[in-house]
Amino acid sequence: MQRYFIETAIENARISGEDARHIERVMRMKQGDQIIVVAQNIAHICKITGFEGDEVAIDATGETIPSSELPIQITVACGLPKGDKLELITQKATELGMFALLPFEAERSIVKWDKKKGAKKQERLQKIAKEAAEQAHRTHIPAVYEPVTFKQLLQDIDQFDAVFIADEEDAKAEKRTRFADKLKLVHEKKLTSILIIFGPEGGISRKEAEALLQAGAQTMSLGPRILRAETAPLYALSAISYEFE
Protein backbone atom coordinates (compact mmCIF):
# COMPACT_ATOMS: atom_id res chain seq x y z
CA MET A 1 0.00 0.00 0.00
CA GLN A 2 1.06 3.56 -0.70
CA ARG A 3 2.19 5.57 2.32
CA TYR A 4 1.49 9.25 2.99
CA PHE A 5 2.37 11.58 5.86
CA ILE A 6 0.01 14.13 7.39
CA GLU A 7 0.71 16.77 10.04
CA THR A 8 -2.63 16.51 11.86
CA ALA A 9 -4.20 13.84 14.06
CA ILE A 10 -5.72 10.87 12.26
CA GLU A 11 -9.26 11.72 13.37
CA ASN A 12 -11.17 13.46 10.54
CA ALA A 13 -7.90 13.73 8.60
CA ARG A 14 -7.70 14.70 4.94
CA ILE A 15 -4.90 14.49 2.42
CA SER A 16 -4.29 17.54 0.26
CA GLY A 17 -1.73 19.12 -2.07
CA GLU A 18 0.72 17.00 -4.06
CA ASP A 19 -0.15 13.84 -2.13
CA ALA A 20 -3.84 14.18 -3.01
CA ARG A 21 -2.99 14.68 -6.68
CA HIS A 22 -0.68 11.67 -6.53
CA ILE A 23 -3.46 9.49 -5.10
CA GLU A 24 -6.04 10.55 -7.67
CA ARG A 25 -4.09 11.21 -10.85
CA VAL A 26 -0.96 9.06 -10.60
CA MET A 27 -2.13 6.06 -8.57
CA ARG A 28 -5.70 6.43 -9.92
CA MET A 29 -7.16 5.22 -6.65
CA LYS A 30 -10.87 5.02 -6.07
CA GLN A 31 -13.25 5.32 -3.16
CA GLY A 32 -12.85 2.27 -0.95
CA ASP A 33 -9.14 1.74 -1.73
CA GLN A 34 -6.81 1.46 1.23
CA ILE A 35 -3.65 3.48 1.92
CA ILE A 36 -1.25 3.91 4.82
CA VAL A 37 -1.38 7.29 6.51
CA VAL A 38 1.28 8.28 9.04
CA ALA A 39 0.04 10.71 11.67
CA GLN A 40 2.04 11.64 14.76
CA ASN A 41 4.59 8.88 14.00
CA ILE A 42 1.97 6.13 13.86
CA ALA A 43 1.16 4.31 10.61
CA HIS A 44 -2.60 3.82 10.19
CA ILE A 45 -4.35 1.74 7.56
CA CYS A 46 -7.03 4.01 6.12
CA LYS A 47 -9.81 3.75 3.57
CA ILE A 48 -10.46 6.43 0.97
CA THR A 49 -14.01 7.72 1.49
CA GLY A 50 -14.16 10.33 -1.23
CA PHE A 51 -12.55 13.02 -3.38
CA GLU A 52 -13.53 16.59 -2.62
CA GLY A 53 -11.86 19.24 -4.76
CA ASP A 54 -8.12 18.99 -4.18
CA GLU A 55 -8.53 16.88 -1.05
CA VAL A 56 -8.87 13.17 -0.38
CA ALA A 57 -11.14 12.21 2.49
CA ILE A 58 -10.01 9.19 4.49
CA ASP A 59 -11.27 7.10 7.38
CA ALA A 60 -8.97 5.15 9.72
CA THR A 61 -9.82 1.45 9.95
CA GLY A 62 -8.40 1.18 13.48
CA GLU A 63 -5.57 -1.04 12.27
CA THR A 64 -1.98 0.18 12.65
CA ILE A 65 1.39 -1.04 11.39
CA PRO A 66 4.44 -1.52 13.68
CA SER A 67 7.12 1.16 13.44
CA SER A 68 10.23 0.43 11.40
CA GLU A 69 12.30 3.18 13.06
CA LEU A 70 15.78 2.62 14.46
CA PRO A 71 15.67 2.21 18.26
CA ILE A 72 18.15 5.09 18.57
CA GLN A 73 18.02 8.57 17.04
CA ILE A 74 20.92 9.21 14.65
CA THR A 75 21.65 12.75 13.53
CA VAL A 76 24.10 13.04 10.64
CA ALA A 77 26.28 16.16 10.52
CA CYS A 78 28.14 16.48 7.24
CA GLY A 79 30.45 19.16 5.94
CA LEU A 80 28.90 20.78 2.86
CA PRO A 81 29.93 18.59 -0.12
CA LYS A 82 30.12 19.48 -3.81
CA GLY A 83 27.44 19.01 -6.45
CA ASP A 84 24.31 17.05 -5.63
CA LYS A 85 25.97 14.87 -3.01
CA LEU A 86 23.88 16.40 -0.22
CA GLU A 87 20.76 15.23 -2.05
CA LEU A 88 22.17 11.71 -2.31
CA ILE A 89 23.07 11.68 1.38
CA THR A 90 19.59 12.94 2.29
CA GLN A 91 17.83 10.27 0.26
CA LYS A 92 19.93 7.24 1.14
CA ALA A 93 20.48 8.15 4.79
CA THR A 94 16.71 8.53 5.18
CA GLU A 95 16.24 5.04 3.77
CA LEU A 96 18.81 3.76 6.27
CA GLY A 97 17.06 5.28 9.30
CA MET A 98 18.63 8.71 9.84
CA PHE A 99 16.68 10.87 12.32
CA ALA A 100 17.94 14.29 11.17
CA LEU A 101 20.50 15.87 8.85
CA LEU A 102 22.66 18.78 9.98
CA PRO A 103 24.94 20.19 7.26
CA PHE A 104 27.77 22.44 8.44
CA GLU A 105 30.32 24.77 6.90
CA ALA A 106 33.56 22.85 7.31
CA GLU A 107 37.03 24.29 6.87
CA ARG A 108 37.55 22.16 3.76
CA SER A 109 34.09 22.75 2.26
CA ILE A 110 34.53 24.15 -1.23
CA VAL A 111 30.83 24.81 -1.62
CA LYS A 112 29.36 27.84 0.13
CA TRP A 113 25.69 27.91 1.11
CA ASP A 114 23.89 30.59 -0.90
CA LYS A 115 21.68 32.40 1.60
CA LYS A 116 19.40 33.74 -1.17
CA LYS A 117 18.75 30.31 -2.66
CA GLY A 118 19.19 28.44 0.61
CA ALA A 119 15.50 28.28 1.57
CA LYS A 120 14.53 26.67 -1.75
CA LYS A 121 17.41 24.20 -1.54
CA GLN A 122 16.50 23.27 2.02
CA GLU A 123 12.87 22.82 0.92
CA ARG A 124 14.00 20.51 -1.89
CA LEU A 125 16.12 18.45 0.51
CA GLN A 126 13.18 18.17 2.90
CA LYS A 127 10.99 16.96 0.03
CA ILE A 128 13.61 14.34 -0.87
CA ALA A 129 13.61 13.18 2.76
CA LYS A 130 9.80 12.92 2.75
CA GLU A 131 9.70 10.87 -0.45
CA ALA A 132 12.48 8.58 0.81
CA ALA A 133 10.65 8.11 4.13
CA GLU A 134 7.49 7.09 2.25
CA GLN A 135 9.43 4.69 0.04
CA ALA A 136 11.22 3.11 3.02
CA HIS A 137 7.93 2.78 4.96
CA ARG A 138 9.10 4.92 7.84
CA THR A 139 6.97 6.69 10.44
CA HIS A 140 9.32 9.68 10.80
CA ILE A 141 10.50 12.18 8.19
CA PRO A 142 14.05 13.33 9.03
CA ALA A 143 14.39 17.06 9.60
CA VAL A 144 16.91 18.65 7.22
CA TYR A 145 18.33 21.70 8.96
CA GLU A 146 19.82 24.81 7.45
CA PRO A 147 23.64 24.58 7.45
CA VAL A 148 25.38 25.83 10.59
CA THR A 149 28.91 27.07 11.17
CA PHE A 150 31.47 24.74 12.70
CA LYS A 151 31.35 26.88 15.86
CA GLN A 152 27.60 26.30 16.12
CA LEU A 153 28.08 22.57 15.56
CA LEU A 154 30.62 22.51 18.38
CA GLN A 155 28.14 24.19 20.70
CA ASP A 156 25.38 21.72 19.83
CA ILE A 157 27.17 18.44 20.52
CA ASP A 158 26.29 18.40 24.23
CA GLN A 159 22.66 17.81 23.19
CA PHE A 160 23.53 14.21 22.25
CA ASP A 161 24.27 11.15 24.37
CA ALA A 162 27.25 10.20 22.20
CA VAL A 163 29.18 11.93 19.41
CA PHE A 164 31.40 10.21 16.85
CA ILE A 165 33.57 11.73 14.14
CA ALA A 166 34.81 10.02 10.99
CA ASP A 167 38.49 10.90 10.83
CA GLU A 168 40.52 9.52 7.92
CA GLU A 169 43.66 9.68 10.06
CA ASP A 170 42.06 6.97 12.19
CA ALA A 171 41.65 4.81 9.09
CA LYS A 172 45.38 5.13 8.39
CA ALA A 173 46.41 4.05 11.91
CA GLU A 174 47.75 0.53 12.46
CA LYS A 175 45.68 0.11 15.60
CA ARG A 176 42.07 1.23 15.39
CA THR A 177 39.24 1.01 17.88
CA ARG A 178 36.49 -0.81 16.06
CA PHE A 179 33.28 1.16 15.59
CA ALA A 180 31.36 -2.01 16.40
CA ASP A 181 32.96 -2.13 19.85
CA LYS A 182 31.98 1.47 20.55
CA LEU A 183 28.44 0.82 19.37
CA LYS A 184 28.17 -2.13 21.74
CA LEU A 185 28.95 0.22 24.62
CA VAL A 186 26.27 2.63 23.40
CA HIS A 187 23.85 -0.27 23.23
CA GLU A 188 24.72 -1.50 26.72
CA LYS A 189 24.29 2.00 28.21
CA LYS A 190 20.90 2.30 26.47
CA LEU A 191 21.70 5.73 25.07
CA THR A 192 18.99 7.31 22.93
CA SER A 193 20.73 9.78 20.62
CA ILE A 194 23.95 9.81 18.59
CA LEU A 195 25.53 12.53 16.47
CA ILE A 196 27.85 11.24 13.75
CA ILE A 197 30.06 13.85 12.06
CA PHE A 198 31.62 13.65 8.61
CA GLY A 199 33.80 16.05 6.71
CA PRO A 200 33.38 17.19 3.10
CA GLU A 201 35.77 16.16 0.33
CA GLY A 202 39.19 16.11 1.99
CA GLY A 203 37.73 15.18 5.36
CA ILE A 204 37.72 16.98 8.69
CA SER A 205 40.71 19.25 9.27
CA ARG A 206 43.12 18.53 12.14
CA LYS A 207 42.00 21.73 13.85
CA GLU A 208 38.34 20.68 13.67
CA ALA A 209 39.07 17.14 14.82
CA GLU A 210 41.00 18.35 17.85
CA ALA A 211 38.23 20.79 18.80
CA LEU A 212 35.60 18.05 18.55
CA LEU A 213 37.66 15.60 20.60
CA GLN A 214 38.20 18.21 23.29
CA ALA A 215 34.44 18.80 23.36
CA GLY A 216 33.81 15.11 24.09
CA ALA A 217 33.51 13.48 20.68
CA GLN A 218 35.08 10.10 19.90
CA THR A 219 36.61 8.87 16.68
CA MET A 220 34.93 6.03 14.82
CA SER A 221 36.83 3.71 12.57
CA LEU A 222 35.02 2.90 9.34
CA GLY A 223 37.65 0.43 8.23
CA PRO A 224 41.04 0.77 6.54
CA ARG A 225 39.72 2.28 3.32
CA ILE A 226 39.16 6.00 2.77
CA LEU A 227 35.49 6.55 1.92
CA ARG A 228 33.98 9.35 -0.13
CA ALA A 229 32.06 12.14 1.62
CA GLU A 230 28.75 10.71 0.42
CA THR A 231 29.67 7.08 1.23
CA ALA A 232 30.88 7.40 4.83
CA PRO A 233 27.51 8.39 6.40
CA LEU A 234 25.79 5.46 4.68
CA TYR A 235 28.48 3.04 5.89
CA ALA A 236 28.08 4.29 9.48
CA LEU A 237 24.28 4.07 9.40
CA SER A 238 24.49 0.52 8.06
CA ALA A 239 26.83 -0.44 10.91
CA ILE A 240 24.48 1.13 13.46
CA SER A 241 21.51 -0.70 11.96
CA TYR A 242 23.39 -3.99 12.12
CA GLU A 243 24.25 -3.45 15.80
CA PHE A 244 20.86 -2.23 16.97
CA GLU A 245 18.48 -4.10 14.70
TrEMBL record:
Parts of the chain that traverse the membrane: none
Origin: domain of life: Bacteria
Broad EC category: transferase
BP-aspect Gene Ontology terms: rRNA base methylation
Example of a GO MF term: rRNA (uridine-N3-)-methyltransferase activity
Single GO cellular component term: cytoplasm
Limits of the Ribosomal RNA small subunit methyltransferase E PUA-like domain: 15-49
Residues in Ribosomal RNA small subunit methyltransferase E methyltransferase domain copies: 69-241
Keyword Metal-binding: no
Similarity-based family: Belongs to the RNA methyltransferase RsmE family.
Name of protein: Ribosomal RNA small subunit methyltransferase E
